Give the backbone structure.
Amino acid sequence: QLHQDDISGDLPDRPEGPLPLHEQPRGGYIVETCVGNVQFGMPAETIKDCLGSGLQVPKYFVVPTVAFVRELGPNIGLNVAEFEFPAYCNFFFYQRRVCLIVATKAVEDRIRKVFQETLFGPDNCDVSGDFKEGTPKDQMPDMQKELDMFRVFNGKKMQLEDLLEFIVFNEEGVAKISEKDKETGEDKEVLIQWRAKLGSAREDGGEYVVIQ
């Protein structure tokens, strides 16, 4: 459930009323905020859903507390944390980094490791085990050289930080998005709070609250 609410009495005055909310065909929700669209959940092909609905592709994506929905049937699951294509779309189409909002630093570290491997390949690309013992090295493909070649974009070797940035929920379950308006220079802020349901044994038992 997504709605406006008040986290503490220290917040400045904020506009009343619900924020525009868009449910996506394959799952996930996009909320329109003062810092741009924020999406909750990332099922496969979510970028197609967003473009098909005429919405601006979000820069900010909230990674669900549970990455796989396992309630579709025996041995059937749905990945709702498919962050690769949102990252590619933001980087290659909009020349900006995607911002993933995650529950803990441990989740950030796992995503970094996965993305490093899927986009740039392994750190040690040794293919000698695929060849007969004694095969000269110059008769083996230089996979590291090939990986490094595909890593160049606009004349620069891509780094993980070129594509990804992270916001981690704090100990109170709050994540803060801060942006400066490009036209007015005004500082804008959106807060997202995760509220676990009392008595729920499920890791994903709770709701997100968006405050603008």
About this structure: The chain has five helices and 13 strands. Residues 1-15 have pLDDT under 50 and may be disordered. The first helix runs from residue 46 to 52. Helices lie at 46-52, 84-94, 105-120, 143-150, 160-163.
